[in-house]
Write a structure and sequence with these properties.
The complex is a heterotrimer of chains A (327), B (334) and C (299). Helix content of chain A is 35%, strand content 24%. By secondary structure, chain A is an alpha/beta fold. Chain A has an 8-stranded mixed β-sheet with strand order 6-7-8-3-9-10-12-11, sandwiched between helices. In chain A, strands 2-1-4-5 form a 4-stranded antiparallel β-sheet, with helices on one face. Chain B has 334 residues and is α/β, with parallel strands linked by helices. An 8-stranded mixed β-sheet of chain B has the order 6-7-8-3-9-10-12-11, sandwiched between helices. A 4-stranded antiparallel β-sheet of chain B has the order 2-1-4-5, covered by helices on one side. In chain B, β4 and β5 form a beta hairpin. In chain B, α4 crosses α5, α4 packs parallel to α6 and α5 packs across α6. Chain C has one domain: MetI-like fold (Orthogonal Bundle), CATH 1.10.3720. Chain C is built from 11 helices and no strands. Classes of the chains: A alpha/beta (327), B alpha/beta (334), C mainly alpha (299). At the A-B interface, α7, α8, α9 and α11 of A face α6, α7, α8, α10 and α11 of B.
């Protein structure tokens, strides 16, 4: 079948503040195969962004990877040489950031910011500034931005939210030759523009033959854009399934409640929501991290031991004792 | 048929009458026409949704009703009294009591240094200063109970609450004055879906038992579908379409409404099928400083005609309670 | 549901407990910072010394007008811990009384400057864009535009040089800094939705300023006050050193340094006492202030 492009194995990440230790990622394993579009859904504070930052090795200094492996093809990003890491960051993986205003430096023109990235992506290729500018223009044209020449010479504040996000996408594409990471690419953007941006990302991924890891809490968006989905709750992967199956028949109680609570446009009945609050990483619940909020938790074992991720059907994995895995 | 006569809500019990409302903001680049001649009604005990992209003027309309801004022209009649020209600081307690607001971001809408008790008590102290201390506490507990918060939350600080719980406290504070009308300014858009559905359910329950009128400002049409009765679609400071929820979702007429609906990210195949096809989102909302002539939506409209740039379409009733401002629809009707 | 007196008392009881618990947690945080505790210990020691100076100082009568030429320029010994000065007075005694004066100066200056500066800043920030803002800010600008030490010196020079006028000078140069800090914090907080919610409810302007906004900026204000205490001593000392503040024989640390400087190369130990006294006091206030900042910053 596919070749594994990105593999994260049993990743543990902790944040240390002056007073507390936050046990955020708790044994996360995911993989992205070549040419595959993978989604990662979970609520805010589920550890999605931490995972992306770990993959790019850009965790803040108080964040520590305490265990696990991150393989890009066969390079282990956690102990490869600095040169290899830079090579992968500059020419293999590109990232679309959540807030387009914060991702662009307000005091530099778009041109300067894009050339910075393109310069490294085409290091040692002997291109002069003119060539690099043409690459920047091509990238902007790819994003269907109106009047790319003008955009190149503008400051970020002179562009609208949708245009800025297109620039951010163009910048991500400069270094994304194989894998595109997208962190909530459309939060704070109007639905109409959101639809345009999502379509653009889909088209570009297809055209350039990229693999994609899309991270979001917006269920509908992930459904329309991915082949396979991981559901993350409190730093644990609780379910993995092909997209169509996951939405038709969610298995893990968390996934069920999550999909149930999304407002529907067909029926006018609202879901119950999920009682309680997200995981407090300072004192994460014992056993299954979802058990304090789970309506189906009646077994002692939920509180005692973390349920393993077991295959319950073809390509479907669930981490819940309702589907076995207990003794 | 004039607009004045055209807009008749299904029943005569009208709480809020907005007529030819205009609100302009002068900036260094020119005058931003945030709300430009908008007329609609809000009837008692209904939920009216104001829907549109950012820059459509929906929040400005709410802020004028609330008194944060004063209307530049037009009128807002609340129970027959003109309130559009009274800024918040000039409003008396009785009027403030009637209209309350729940803000978008629960993280900043509660004072981080006050406990839940202090937050709600402030509201009670102002509007019911004559109650004795027992009655005040009783009222406080009733309010908390009402939104579904237990006594354990009394002394928590906002920082110790989840996003949904914070929003419940904000609702309790708004209810403390016994309001008639509650403005929900994107009240659930910063929340996760699991917390969002809890808030929406609470809002529905409260509306039923307290006979409240909601003005819901949002860009999330899926939320609108679930809790509102009627929808006003706004674009660049103008009303584009007014219809009941069922009508708007089953028979959207204005191209902009169709574009909005087609842009909803769906979570099942069945849902995708019900949304309008053949219209795709394109372009971005233009600046409100120099809005397009004629129909303001024409720059993004796939069905644009010659007349659209020449003449501004007026809001016409196409069927009972369904109003559209579009030349295309008007022509078809003729 | 009806609330009885018992229920009410239970709730009030609970509220008190929660408050106590919060205070305990803040204290715990403060305690964890070793430097802050060091600052607090030094400060309280010095404060106790200053309060009971009459009983703790070996020669209380040396604090004021006292001359004993026989014993002048004595080197450090067990009899005179820091030696004696040019008039034969025990320097250790004078330093202890110097602390008393320093604490009094800090207490008076801060207790005038902090509330006045805060209230003016709150008013200017809350009525942003209206006349109170313009008046307060322009007034503050006037004072700020002159370098602080020069302002203080010129006020002292116009008035009679003594300790009271030195304090007046420091107070006058200090308030605009509080006002400006409070103003900038207030004018950003006043647009927060929770302030808007309070306005929509009909809370009085005064209550919004003092009950909604002030608690949110109290942390930085108190921290600034402790860090400023150190500056009050330094500026006070500077004024005294230049001869425009406290006059001899007042046992002021700055005056002492200035007086003893004259004998520096030969009788070098004389200056150690007052100079070290200023250094320790300033350091203790800074350490304590940093600890406070930690407590208010939260986790």
């Amino acid at each position: 079948m596919y070749e594994n492009l990105l593999t994260v194995k049993d990743l543990f990440v902790k944040y240390k503040s002056y007073w507390y230790v936050y046990h955020v990622l708790d044994g996360v394993s995911i993989n992205v195969k070549l040419g595959e579009k993978v989604g990662l859904i979970g609520e805010s504070g589920a550890g999605k962004t931490t995972l992306l930052k770990s993959i790019l090795r850009v965790l803040p200094p108080q964040g520590k990877i305490t265990n696990g492996e991150i393989l890009y093809r066969d390079v282990n990003l956690l102990n490869c040489s600095k040169q290899q890491l830079l090579e992968i960051r500059r020419r293999k993986i590109g990232m679309i950031f959540q807030d387009p205003l914060a991702a662009l430096n307000p005091v530099f023109k778009i041109k300067e910011q894009m050339l910075d990235i393109i310069k490294y992506a085409h290091e040692n290729s002997g291109m002069n500034k003119r060539d690099l500018e043409n690459i920047a223009l091509d990238l902007l044209r790819d994003t269907l931005i109106p009047d790319p020449e003008r955009v190149l010479n503008s400051y970020p504040f002179e562009l609208s939210g949708g245009m800025r996000q297109r620039v951010v996408i163009a910048m991500a594409l400069a270094s994304a030759r194989e894998l595109l990471l997208a962190d909530e690419p459309t939060t704070n953007i109007d639905v109409t523009i959101q639809a345009q941006i999502l379509k653009l990302i889909m088209d570009l991924v297809k055209k350039k033959g990229l693999s994609m890891l899309l991270v979001s809490h917006a269920l509908g968006m992930v459904r329309n854009m991915t082949d396979r989905i991981y559901v993350i709750y409190g730093g644990n992967i609780v379910e993995e399934a092909p997209t169509s199956k996951l939405f038709k028949d969610p298995l893990h109680p968390y996934t069920r409640l999550l999909i149930d609570s999304a407002p529907k446009i067909l029926s006018s009945t609202l879901g119950e929501g999920i009682k309680g609050n997200p995981v407090d990483y300072r004192h994460p619940p014992s056993g299954c991290r979802f058990h304090p909020r789970c309506p189906f938790c009646d077994q002692e074992i939920c509180r005692r031991a973390k349920p393993p991720l077991i295959e319950v059907d073809r390509d479907r994995y669930v981490s819940c004792y309702l589907y076995g895995g207990g003794t | 048929m004039s607009v004045e006569n055209a807009i008749q809500t299904p029943n005569d019990q009208i709480l809020l009458k907005v007529r030819n409302l205009k609100k302009y903001f002068p900036t260094s680049n020119g005058v931003v026409r945030a709300v430009d001649d908008v007329s609609f009604d809000v009837s008692k005990e209904e939920t009216l949704a104001l829907v549109g992209e950012s820059g459509s003027g929906k929040t400005t309309v709410a802020n004028v009703i609330l008194g944060k801004y004063v209307a530049d022209a037009g009128s807002i009649l609340y129970k027959g009294y003109e309130i559009g020209n009274i800024p918040l600081i000039k409003r008396n307690l009785l009027l403030r009591r009637e209209i309350q607001v729940v803000f978008q971001d629960p993280a900043t809408s509660l004072n981080p240094k006050k406990t839940v008790k202090d937050i709600i008590e402030t509201a009670i102290n102002i509007h019911y200063p004559n109650l004795n201390k027992y009655e005040k506490i009783e009222r406080l507990l009733i309010l908390m109970n009402y939104v579904g918060l237990t006594e354990d939350y009394l002394f928590k600080l906002p920082g110790e609450l989840g996003g949904g719980e914070k929003q419940l406290v904000a609702i309790a504070r708004a209810l403390a004055t016994n309001p008639t009308c509650l403005i929900l300014d994107e009240s659930t858009s910063n929340l996760d879906v699991s917390a969002q559905s809890r808030i929406l359910k609470t809002l529905l329950r409260i509306q039923k038992s307290k006979n409240l009128t909601y003005i819901l400002i949002t860009h999330d049409l899926a939320v609108v579908k679930n809790i509102s009765h009627r929808i006003n679609v706004m674009y660049l400071g103008k009303l584009m379409e007014i219809a009941s929820v069922e009508e708007l979702f089953s028979n959207p007429l204005h191209p902009y409404t169709q574009m909005l609906l087609a842009s909803i990210p769906t979570i099942s195949e069945e849902e995708s099928k019900t949304l309008p096809k053949g219209i795709e989102s394109k372009g971005e909302i233009p600046s409100a400083i120099n809005p397009p002539s004629g129909c303001r939506f024409r720059t993004r409209c796939p069905f644009v005609m010659n007349i659209c740039s020449e003449q501004e379409p007026i809001l016409n009733e196409v069927s009972h309670g369904h109003y559209v401002a579009c030349h295309l629809i008007n022509n078809m009707k003729k | 549901m009806s609330i009885t007196e018992l229920d009410y008392n239970l709730i009030i009881q609970k509220e008190k407990e929660v408050r106590k618990e919060r205070f305990k947690r803040a204290w715990f945080r403060f305690k964890k910072s070793k430097l802050a505790i060091t600052g607090l210990v030094i400060l309280s020691t010095l404060l106790i010394m200053a309060i009971f100076a009459e009983y703790l100082a070996p020669y209380p009568e040396h604090a004021g007008m006292y001359v004993n030429f026989k014993e002048r320029f004595q080197y450090i010994s067990t009899k005179y811990l820091l030696g004696t000065d040019h008039l034969g007075r025990d320097i250790f005694t004078r330093v202890i009384f110097g602390f008393r004066l320093a604490f009094m100066m800090i207490g008076i200056v801060i207790s005038i400057v902090m509330p006045v500066g805060t209230v003016l800043g709150l008013i200017a920030g809350y009525y942003k864009g209206k006349w109170p803002e313009h008046i307060v800010l322009r007034l503050a600008d006037m004072f700020v535009s002159i370098p602080p030490l020069i302002l203080a010196l010129s006020i002292c020079a116009i008035l009679e040089p003594n300790i009271v006028n030195a304090m007046i000078a420091i107070t006058l140069m200090w308030w605009p800094w509080y006002t400006r800090m409070v103003y900038s914090m207030t004018s950003s907080i006043r647009d927060e939705p929770y302030v808007w919610a309070a306005r929509a409810l009909g809370v009085k302007d005064r209550d919004i300023m003092f009950k909604e906004i002030l608690p949110n900026i109290l942390g930085p204000i108190l921290t600034k006050a402790t860090l400023d205490a150190a500056w009050v001593i330094l500026i006070g000392s500077a004024i005294s050193f230049l001869g425009l503040g406290a006059q001899p024989p007042t046992p002021d640390l700055g005056t002492m340094v200035s007086e003893y400087m004259a004998y520096f190369p030969t009788y070098w130990w004389m200056i150690i006492g007052p100079a070290l006294g200023i250094a320790i006091l300033v350091m203790a206030f800074n350490l304590f202030g940093d600890g406070l900042r930690e407590v208010f910053a939260g986790d």
